[in-house]
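Memo to structure team: turn this sequence into structure tokens by end of day. - J.P.
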Amino acid sequence: MSSAPGGTVLANPPELSPRAFQKIRKLVYDTAGIDLREGKETLVSARLGKRLRQFGYRSYDQYIDHVTADTSGESLIALIDVLTTNYTSFLREPAHFEFLKSQILPAIAKRSRIKVWCAAAATGEEPYSLAFALFEALGTEAATRCRILATDISTTALAKARAGIYPAQRFNEVPKEWLPKYLLRGHGESQGFYRIKPEVARIVEFRRLNLIEEFDPGSVFPLISCRNVMIYFDKPTQEKIVNRMAMFLESGAYFFVGHSESLNGIQHPFQFVRPAIYRKP
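Reply from structure team:
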């Protein structure tokens, strides 16, 4: 990552002015669709202030100039990483996994190829949870018959996801009998950590994707999981993304959002099934 001019570590970051906040707000909205609503100034100041202190920027304007001048795009990605939470966990929102087990997988279990899309993969816990569910339903055949496309805007999060190494406490909600089936226990310096087994990790393809840009995942899916990312977008952006994703769902396929989210207030082609679960007619 490029360092700021001088590289001086500042004791305190400069004040975030209303003008600087609006510049940051426009930058992240135009490039990532993230809607930093009025009232988010404290959050922006707290999170970006650490970067200003670390790299010695003496003003937010200087930092923004550095981000926009970085033709590699890495500084912009780092800015987005800092402002988005990337909170996730294994088997988060278990009602979705129960629905997958009881309703979706029985209908597609005989297919020779099963491919699903996790559109907000973060650090990997969700797509690996989907992989566990597929192995539970199909046994070792999942290794050859199933693929999970896992996308996220954050290169930092995707790097952690590809590594597939997590502290043991991250698996507290995972059934104990799954641990030896799908994980390798760390020893020595890796004590207290688990790694996703290679045969499980191989069915997950991680790819960087900015959802507000044109995209083509190269397939249609019986399930797209796009959970806990809509909260970052305003209604027009949500509508644009949801309708584009609908193009990549089979007829009768399912669309998951987070349980704190809904598709109320936007035009879309889906039928409501139950909270956070929709179906394409």
